[in-house]
């Protein structure tokens, strides 16, 4: 049985943490004498008030049970997204309720899709808030909160288990608190390093930190209407490409590499395979663009590299408009938007590790058909994958594809063309951001009807929570109601 007070108390802490970033954004807005100061301040005070009442007027709750941890994880994301829309809604401009919700969900889920026609029309305070939602969502507000709340026996591990997939913990057996600290340390170091490099390359400090929040979170929000294409700077593109790629790799592997441990990025066979497949995609698209005279060779390599890494990492920043590229390249980019990065990273999508295990399982089944008495196992980074996890991954992939089909079908009911409907479904469920058709890399989602906006907002949350957690929570409430 789920104790409502236990869930509400933790949701209050989440709201308090979220409001801290709103207050920082309000200070930036006040310093620049912007009209977004009061919308940000009022939103922050609402969050602080509800969070204070929820967390401080509920007494001791004892240890958190697993079902409660699951509820805190799922409802924590929903609560955060609802809280995050307030600054947009109060400010007005292009933000109706549907648009404000979409932008908030897009930020927290690190999708990076936007309804804004004029991104540069936002104030600095709102730009910072928008980027902050990506920063919070990249690591996960639940993990941030787990880092600061007092240790309780079993409590943190249950919430951590609900928030982080078993696959991402397969090669790492440390205590949940130590794992959270390691992930957070890597996250902050990467943000700081990229901010410094982008500033040295000519970005303003404000733009540099906003783009770093976006890159390390693999979100894709930019302060410019033309995204990274606005800078037209190959060195900025190289730096961002590097950090997009790094951020799509398991953060604990990055930590192990920094600590000089044996199990690291360079010794991980899965990581090497992931990087190799990205480079194959870059090569194929470069050749196609060059062969069809879209650009010269070096320009083809430049744009292909950025776009492949951007979509594979689910960042979604753009250095060129890929909507007019050859169909072959678009189909290949759609594949990367489905596959995406690795587990344990800030990337969304199915995740490369799951696809790797799925095909390893397929090979195992073929071997067992040929040699029925043989004993075969699936391994990833020298760790045996249990059959239960193999089945779980297969079910997840089927559910993922089914969700894509249903979302595409629903969008088509609103008269949205096939390419836009399919790619928008892929881009939102995979938390990628840009699609193709009328939602391409240098376009936006503003022209879609409100109903489609709500559907895609739900899609982004499904993708961030990886579908299974939401279905499990619905099942828990359903069973409780029928007792």
Quick one: overall form?
A: globular
The residue fraction in helices comes out at: 55-70%
In terms of DSSP E residues, the strand content is under 5%
**N-to-C span:** 11 Å
Query: What is the count of DSSP helices, taking H or I runs of 4+ residues?
Result: 20
Give the tally of β-strands. Answer: 2
Strand order within the widest beta sheet = 1-2
* Radius of gyration, whole Å: 22 Å
Low-confidence stretches: none
Major sheet details: 2 strands, antiparallel
Mean pLDDT: 88
Class derived from helix and strand content: mainly alpha
> What count of structural domains?
2
**How do the helices and strands follow one another from N- to C-terminus?**
HHHHHHHHHHHHHHHHEEHHHH
Explain what this protein looks like in three dimensions.
By secondary structure, the chain is an all-alpha fold. It has two domains: 1-163, no CATH class; 181-465, no CATH class. The chain has 20 helices and two strands. It has helices at residues 4-31, 37-56, 66-84, 86-91, 97-108, 124-139, 141-148, 155-163, 176-200, 205-216, 234-247, 251-258, 269-291, 297-312, 327-339, 352-370, 387-412, 418-429, 450-464, 468-481; strands at residues 378-380, 383-385. It has a two-stranded antiparallel sheet. α3 (66-84) crosses α5. The longest helix has 28 residues, at 4-31. It is globular. The mean pLDDT is 88.
